[in-house]
Design brief:
By secondary structure, the chain is α+β, with helices and mostly antiparallel strands. Helix content is 35%, strand content 26%. A hairpin with a 5-residue loop joins strand 2 and strand 3. Helix 1 packs antiparallel against helix 3. The radius of gyration is 16 Å and the shape is flat. The two termini are 21 Å apart. The mean pLDDT is 93.
Length: 120
């Protein structure tokens, strides 16, 4: 596979059930639309729901770390954080962040489809 220079922010929340998962995704998708997606280098935000109804992972993909850093330096962080707080307060259930530190990552390796290796 070719090298992937993209940069990711992986946001992890614990929630109290499937209804809260759905509310969380709706609220945080709106935050992406209003506060993030128009920045240069933004590629996508994908929301993953655990099948047991207890977790939501959001993976925000940027074209590069430089694009992400530009977003951090030039965006309205205070306004975005207020919108996040308001979104969390508006949920009918409970959602708690599980990240520690800055939740940013680069791709180290990816294994894609191909023939089975038999040289074990």
């Amino acid at each position: 596979m070719s090298a992937d220079a993209s940069f990711h922010s992986i946001i992890d929340y614990t929630v109290d059930g499937p209804d809260t998962q759905q509310e969380f995704v709706a609220a945080f998708a709106e935050i992406q639309e209003r506060w993030v997606r128009f920045y240069p280098g933004y590629q996508s935000a994908r929301f993953y729901l655990s099948t047991d109804g207890t977790r939501v992972y959001t993976i925000v993909r940027w074209a590069s770390e430089a694009d992400y850093r530009n977003f951090v330096e030039t965006s309205d962080t205070e306004g975005r954080m207020a919108a996040i707080s308001q979104a969390l307060a508006g949920l009918s259930g409970r959602a708690e962040a599980r990240m520690t530190g800055i939740p940013t990552y680069t791709v180290a390796r990816e294994v894609g489809p191909g023939p089975q290796r038999l040289d074990v």
